[in-house]
């Protein structure tokens, strides 16, 4: 492949990851206005799974995996796309979409702390610990308006309960990411993702049916468009572009999505939903972005990189 052509594809892949995942927060907010979180997750998972299975069949790739691999994929999928997604959707009913994206952007920090605590994990360097401290300061600044107002909404519409829910969402995704790295799946990326999304979709459907979410659902054109966007662009296009980049670009550069996506989400929130940030929240935003960048770019010690690209690929957003 000519060098210029490869550079063009890499540029387009970065654009897909930045834009598609940055826009998912607005789509999640719109879908969550009329559908319960489990139903949003179920609808998104079903459509994404159908698309991924179709891709596997078109490529002639078998969907069969060993039983041990199947349950591990299911566990990772449920953590990333049931627990994480449902808490994220719920959290966005209590916190502005731009702020939600900033809290979710701290996932690399959670992963770094988990890896540091686990045997044989990657150890944070001094620079990495500085990033963790900056992230903690940023989180405090972010929630300070809500703290001053107690349990009521702050200037940007954020509540303490909403922040706690979103932190839980981030921890679930980080746990799934660390588990995925340690499981070391030797499975085709599309097959693995199809299994993960199908497992999460099954749980999401069960929760939605058990809670009677179908009876209260309000299917509007905007809701359907949001579900379609989350499935096609958030899950399939964004994931494929991310996987492509991991195979051709240093992971530290690819991981810049973690602090580019929130900027896009905040700008969309301001333009589309008239969200406004208090001065303390703006300071928190800056600190969190610097913190995430510091942790991502810091050097780690005593760990061998995963052998399979699947281990580095987050599915959400």
Short description:
Helix content is 75%, strand content 0%.
Walk me through what this model shows:
With 317 residues, this protein is mostly helical. The protein has one domain. 75% of the residues lie in helices and 0% in strands. Helix 2 crosses helix 3, helix 2 packs across helix 10 and helix 3 runs antiparallel to helix 7. It is globular, with a radius of gyration of 19 Å.
Task: List the keywords.
single chain; 317 residues; mainly alpha; 75% helix
Task: Set down the secondary structure blueprint.
Blueprint: H1 3-34, H2 37-59, H3 67-91, H4 97-104, H5 107-117, H6 126-148, H7 160-183, H8 189-210, H9 213-216, H10 221-246, H11 251-254, H12 257-273, H13 279-297
Helix pairs in contact: 1-4, 1-10, 1-12, 2-3, 2-8, 2-10, 3-7, 3-8, 4-12, 5-7, 6-13, 12-13
Q: What gyration radius follows from the Cα positions, in whole Å?
A: 19 Å
Biggest sheet record: none
Number of strands: 0
**What portion of residues is helical?**
over 70%
* Number of helical regions: 13
Oligomer: single chain
What class, by secondary structure content? Answer: mainly alpha
Domain count, please report it: 1
Classify the beta-strand content into a percent band. Answer: under 5%
Distance between the termini: 31 Å
